[in-house]
Design brief:
- The chain is mainly α.
- It is built from three helices and no strands.
- The longest helix has 26 residues.
- The radius of gyration is 15 Å and the shape is elongated.
- Helix 1 runs antiparallel to helix 3.
């Protein structure tokens, strides 16, 4: 379904949220799961991944409809 290079790009998007993470930002404890979902620094990559997955699912659905 996906080429290896596309999978590498998606994996990098997933990991970019952890690169920007460091102690001292946000209002939630940095070791909590909530921190990665609520804080904007970590939220944008999560939204990008959700958007890419939705786009890919839409493309697959349209292709199967023919």
């Amino acid at each position: 379904m996906f080429r290896p290079s596309l999978m590498a790009c998606l994996w990098n998007l997933l990991l970019i949220g952890t690169v920007f993470g460091h102690a001292g930002h946000g209002v939630t404890p940095p070791e909590s799961v909530t921190h990665y979902v609520v804080e904007p620094t970590h939220g944008w990559p999560l939204l990008a991944i959700i958007g890419l997955l939705a786009f890919a699912a839409h493309r697959v659905f349209r292709r199967r409809q023919g």
